[in-house]
Amino acid sequence: MQTSSDRHEYPSHWEADVVLRDGGTARVRPITVDDAERLVSFYEQVSDESKYYRFFAPYPRLSAKDVRRFTHHDFVDRVGLAATIGGEFIATVRYDRIGAGGLPASAPADEAEVAFLVQDAHQGRGVASALLEHIGAVARERDIRRFAAEVLPANTKMIKVFTDAGYQQKRHFEDGVVRLEFDLEPTDRSVAVQRAREQRAEARSVQRLLAPGSVAVIGAGRTAGGVGRSVLANLREAGFTGRLYAVNKSLEEKELDGVPAHRSVRDIGEHVDLAVVAVPAPYVPEVVAECGEHGVQGLVVVSSGYAESGPGGRERQRELVRQARTYGMRIIGPNTFGIINTSPDVRLNASLAPEMPRPGRIGLFAQSGAIGIALLSRLHRRGGGVTGVTGVSTFVSAGNRADVSGNDVLQYWYDDPDTDVALMYLESIGNPRKFTRLARRTAAAKPLVVVQGARHAAAPQGHAVRATRLPHATVSALLAQAGVIRVDTITELVDAGLLLARQPLPSGPRVAILGNSESLGLLTFDACLAEGLRPLPPLDLTTAASAEDFRRALERALADDRCDAVVVTAIPAVGETSVRDAALAEALRSASASAPAKPVLVAHVELGGLAEALSAAASTAPQTGPGPAATADAARPGEPSAPVGRQDPRRPSAGTGAPDETRLIPAYPAAERAVRALAEAVKYGQWRREAAEPGKVPEYEDIDEKGAAEQIDALLSRGTGLTLGAEDTRALLARYGVDVRRALPAPTPGEAAAAAGTLGYPVALKTTAPHLRHRADLGGVRLDLANEEQLHRAYAELTELFGGPEELRPVVQGMAPRGVDTVVRAVIDPAAGAVLSFGLAGAASELLGDTAHRLIPVTDRDASSLVRSIRTAPLLFGWRGSAPVDTAALEEVMLRVSRLVDDHPEVVGVSLEPVVVAPHGLSVLGATVRLARAPLRDDLGPRTLPVV
């Protein structure tokens, strides 16, 4: 319990866990009056040189007055933060608000002097950079806009902390001191620097877990078959290259299965990098404390009995994470299946998988242990799919993902040279805003394929995630915008990964089809059309085709400029002259080498022979000798077979670096599966090409950002959670160039006639009652009323059909040019962020869910694709002879709404309905805007680990 100081309550929301440059963690928290002894102890461990740099003079010890000054803060004008590990200080930072002449001041003074002190043993770990981010966020919260710091010229490390932060700054040199001044408003560069540091730190934290130099299995018992003993055996049999230890407090033996054994991790005389914890949950805290005190860097907690078991287990899980972070350790799990790294330099199988997967180029992440088991089992088989052929680089089972999550693993895979394709099974996304950002960056470098489980149910009990109001279809659309290849089943995950792991991306949707079965070729043709591809007429080689016939046909297809990919269909043939499987495999491999930039797939009716030959054609990675890994196993029925060798034109040889490693042609037991995988590759290839030129957020000179901010502030002064009235809505949208056609209330026939006279005929009479609003199909709208007589008649009809004016809330509005009715909406989701949505107006579109979504801010390219991505888009472009409408004007309205929401986070909802898009121009006939106090943006704040 922290004691508050002076004027304000202790700001517990400033507490945070951060990942440091070397992958370790530290706790950042405010310094309080209770920290006097910790501060003195910390200062005693700082070198005289560092003290000199801090105080500009020899300062061997802190006086009682100093201690009071550095521990008594008001948390407004004087703030101190400490980075702690194991409860002890490793670094401190403080600011003091100053006014004119550098004297102490209070608000409204908006400048503060900042100073750091980092313990020498922890310098170089990025502690000061992390503290600068956090003290900067605190200062902005307290209306401080600028920091000043005085640094001795010889203190180059601290000068670098300030200059590398990315803020706008000024530098002066006077009286032998460098004075730095910089604004605290985040800039594009400061955010980029922060995110680059975040990536390096989080990737390093995962790398420490996946490539340890030593591992202790805690809970390895005497009896074979237990969880701990099984993990120990799997590590030993995989050939782990580091030091391995067995730990169990009941052990008296010095060895267990040939592995050094100890009763406690503290008894190990050497450093331990990773501990696999396989003891019952009640004993885990004691184990974590021993590991932390021994300097263990990370934990893989296989133990169960945590959040998956109910509220009591959830609290145990929170305490587990808090305890581990106290010692600077990261956790995979609890309730995890384990982790695997097949690199020959590591050979880590710290999991319950009895066999080590073959080495390869695919990274695999699973939140479910059961799915992880199923995937590893399938992918390990020689003919069992992606990994049985192309191999796994790393595997992480997150379990309850209390700490290390899919986001952390994405950070690691992003620049991991051993991973070319990332496959993920996710049952929940704890931070969708961050995940989409990391996914977009990763997908720009390597394919990312995701299966989402629990799409129509709550997240598993063990997963503590923030709620999102967005439906699954919207989340899927946002992932697609980020370049994620989202598939629906584990089978599709394997199929897509098999293609992406070893084939180049197609440059377009044109597909050549050839084979020895006319029927299979036609099935493939139909499947291509169903997936939105553009197939060429199938080429039937007949069942009498030889391997040479296949080779020549494939070479011709690959040389054809009209094709971007080739699907080869094959059925087994009978007779002495029929093509033999091994010969066919060799022929396809030879032909594909003539055009290494075009992907080739095989769809075959599997009777065993061709799949086995394809499996034997090339190995997952170069084999150095005979053995089980070099043996060709027949593919199991219904599984993709192993690929044929083929050189990769996009990158150097993968695997172990053997000079003759080849690319692999994937084969599928059904044409539909092959084509579906190809369609995903085509869409991903198109996204990659577009991502290279991502578009721009336009600048509009007529936008009144300042006036909008003043109007919003004035409106929010009345209260929060406001839905604006019609006139306020029109005024706010007008500041961003969105003109809403005026509608006047018509509570009586006479007032309706007066409104029509003001607006001018012809007019529309509409009800605005909630149950009738935007439902023209129910008859609550009368259009093209040319005079007062028609208006009175329409008024009488509406009130007779639907009720009195007080219930209908009728309005009169001038007629707009005819066009296509559309809807543009923007909402703020607490987890995913700001989302722009578009669709056609009407019950049919809502019923079919025909709505497209993009994250805000939307670029001009995003807006263009948004208009074209709904299924009913042809209605906007002249369907069945109708006149095309002004989609350019529609895209501009979307961009202006996006700018409004992005510029003013207080705007938490915008709905334009309907937006009638005519052949020339458009009309916004209805609009609503909701305001609330700006929600916190955790993606723009300082780096922190998720709160447990």
In short:
This protein is α/β, with parallel strands linked by helices and 948 residues long. It is built from 28 helices and 40 strands. Strand 1 and strand 2 form a beta hairpin.
Written overview of the protein:
By secondary structure, this protein is an alpha/beta fold. 34% of the residues lie in helices and 22% in strands. It has 28 helices and 40 strands. The strands form 6 sheets. It has an 8-stranded mixed β-sheet, with helices on both faces. Strand 35 (820-829) and strand 36 (833-840) form a beta hairpin. Helix 13 (432-443) packs parallel to helix 14. The longest helix has 23 residues, at 188-210. The radius of gyration is 33 Å and the shape is flat.
Which features characterize this protein?
single chain, 948 residues, alpha/beta, eight-stranded mixed sheet, 28 helices, 34% helix
Which regions contain 5 or more consecutive residues with pLDDT less than 50? 382-388, 615-661
What separation lies between the terminal Cα atoms? Answer: 17 Å
Helix/sheet category = alpha/beta
Mean pLDDT: 87
Number of helices: 28
Shape: flat
Instruction: Give the tally of β-strands.
Output: 40
**Can you give the helix content as a percent range?**
25-40%
Largest sheet: 8 strands, mixed
Strand content: 15-25%
Radius of gyration: 33 Å
- What spatial order of strands do you see in the largest sheet? 1-2-3-4-5-6-8-7
Oligomer: single chain
